[in-house]
Write a structure and sequence with these properties.
This protein is of the alpha/beta class and about 325 residues long. The protein is about 45% helix and about 20% strand.
């Protein structure tokens, strides 16, 4: 199988290491210092799970999709930040020739609604979504470190597409050391992650702490509970669902299982702010705010958290 990976950050490098290690023909899109680092030193995945070294020169790297003369990819894996999704979708739309006729695009991204910009250029039958709830950091430009793991990567279709074509991808990632499965309920999985990320990511970034620390005071848990309540209200009113029937049942799982298994993780939002990068808050909390406005549901805690993060971005 042949795959093109767009987005050579911590998540992308970890998934790419899996596929290359088990024999996939993997190629990357990367620029600048990242491209140079991978070309010179290869790809390294360390931390939890299998330690993998992909030697320099094994993976071909392109700076632009236009540079790819003959792709014939079975899969294009989009692992970029959602802040550049529109740009990536447009560029892929101009270079559809690189995909096989049966080729699929799989979005390994935070948030909800990321598929919408890709649907401007591709049919629903070509778009699949992945839920990643494993924590990664990138200590060096060519190294991905798996820091925490809460559940397998899940891949599925929001449109009821057949999952048979996705089985080889899930198997490749899984055989390469990162648990991965297909699911008929990817919508529920993505909303479960929205609950998790929208509650923890901005809070961890605002207070500069790991996930676990947020559970150690009644003040922070009060805010998180309010955020969860608002998300549940909006999600249900918008016609979506997840694995828990109520906010209270989710909170029980959240505090008793989800946070303990990812206690030491520092959110990607916090890491972005430390690097003075634009965060993905518009694909997370702002989705809740937008749905709330459309449904005439007040979400004051999500609104405040969102504006604090945007203020931090303005002060870079």
């Amino acid at each position: 199988m042949k795959a093109l990976l767009i987005g050579s950050g911590a998540v992308g490098l970890a998934i790419g290491a899996s596929l290359s290690d088990v024999g996939w023909d993997l190629e990357l899109v990367a620029k600048g210092k990242t491209k140079n680092a991978v070309e010179k030193n290869g790809i390294v995945r360390k931390g939890l799970f299998q330690h993998i070294i992909i030697p320099a020169g094994k993976v071909k790297i392109y700076e632009k999709l236009q540079s790819i003369e003959k792709g014939e990819y079975d899969f294009v894996l989009v692992c970029t930040k959602t802040t550049i999704s529109a740009e990536i979708a447009e560029e892929l739309g101009r270079n559809k020739r690189i995909l096989k006729a049966s080729g699929k695009i799989v979005l390994f991204q935070n948030g909800f609604g990321n598929d919408e910009v890709f649907l401007k250029y591709f049919d629903k039958q070509q778009i699949y979504s992945a839920r990643v709830i494993t924590g990664f950091t990138r200590p060096e430009l060519n190294i991905s470190e798996v820091t925490v793991h809460a559940a397998p990567i899940l891949i599925g279709s929001l449109y009821g597409n057949s999952l048979d074509c996705i089985l080889p991808l899930a198997k490749g990632i899984n055989d390469g050391g990162i648990p991965c499965e297909v699911t008929e309920e990817i919508g529920k999985a993505l909303w479960a992650k929205m609950l998790y990320n929208c509650t923890l990511n901005p809070m961890g970034a605002i207070f500069n702490v790991n996930y676990g620390k947020l559970t150690e005071t009644s003040y922070s848990t009060y805010i998180m509970n309010k955020i969860i309540d608002e998300i549940f209200q909006v999600m249900i009113a918008a016609g979506y669902s997840t694995y828990w029937e109520s906010a209270e049942s989710y909170k029980k799982e959240f505090y008793e299982k989800l946070i303990p298994s990812t206690y030491d993780h520092r959110s990607s939002t916090l890491q972005d702010i430390e690097k003075k990068n634009i965060t993905e808050i518009d694909s997370l909390t702002h989705v809740i705010i937008t749905l709330g406005r459309e449904l005439n549901i007040a979400v004051p805690y999500n609104d405040m958290i969102y504006n604090i993060i945007k203020t931090k971005e303005c002060f870079y």
